[in-house]
Amino acid sequence: MPVDTDVEKLIAALAEAVISHADELTALDRAIGDGDHGLNMRRGFEAVLNQLPSLAGQPLPEALKAVGMTLVMTVGGASGPLYGTLFLQLGKELPAGANRQQVCTALAAALTALKLRGKSERGQKTMIDALAPPLEAFQQGKDPVAAALNAAEATIPMQAQRGRAAFLGVRSIGHMDPGARSSALLIAAAAAVAAQQP
Fold it and tell me: Domain residues of the chain, as ranges?
């Protein structure tokens, strides 16, 4: 995600990716959670879209922080603080005119902040499982989108160890983690916009 990415296109793409898949995310969450992940995420990103005119004129780091604050305030459940933390930390860590290595560093810092906020690690059937592999792929010059989508699929055979799904025990096996799926959708949307940049 280059720092000179068109802010308006990026944020619009992120929002539309979530909103257009809200029903799918809700169905996934209905199987192992409260059943409100898609509804909550749609509400949050609709609020982000409403702010798009003002966000479009901001530098990318500032826009990301604004998105994070909006998600914290409008997305219910655990997703608001988690996604809010991800965007806020990324905005804080991303310097103006960042090079590829600095982008990697910012993404890694955001992932670390997310782990601390959610008290979770990779392998526990959370959104972390769909964020860590694409970061590694990006660092290695490989396709982060394929890594994210495959990683979300890889949560299906896992047993949840965090969040409401953890209460299901072995019954959480056989279902994709909704947070992993929404994370993969956001990564795919961001990568598509970045690929259009000159």
Answer: 7-195
Condensed to tens digits (0 to 9), the pLDDT of residues 94-134 reads 987 778 899 899 999 999 999 999 999 999 999 999 999 99
Sequence-ordered alpha helix ranges (H) in 33-59: 37-50, 52-55
Name the CATH architecture for the domain at 7-195.
Alpha Horseshoe (1.25)
Phi, psi dihedrals of residue 59, rounded to the nearest 5°:
-60, 150
- Contact assessment for residue 4 and residue 197, using Cβ atoms and an 8 Å cutoff: yes
**Which single residue is written with the structure tokens 């982060």?**
144
- Collapsing DSSP states into helix, strand and coil, what is residue 35? coil
Question: Residue 133 CA to chain centroid, in angstroms?
Answer: 13
String of DSSP letters for 100-164: HHHHHHHHHHHHHHHHHHHT--TTSSSTHHHHHHHHHHHHTTS-HHHHHHHHHHTTTTSPP-SSG
Contact yes or no for 191/197 (Cβ under 8 A)? no
Average pLDDT, the chain: 92
SS3 assignment, position 78: coil
Q: If pLDDT is split at 50, 70 and 90, which confidence band does 52 have? A: very high
Contact 184, 174 (CB under 8 A): no
37 phi and psi angles, rounded to 5 deg = -60, -45
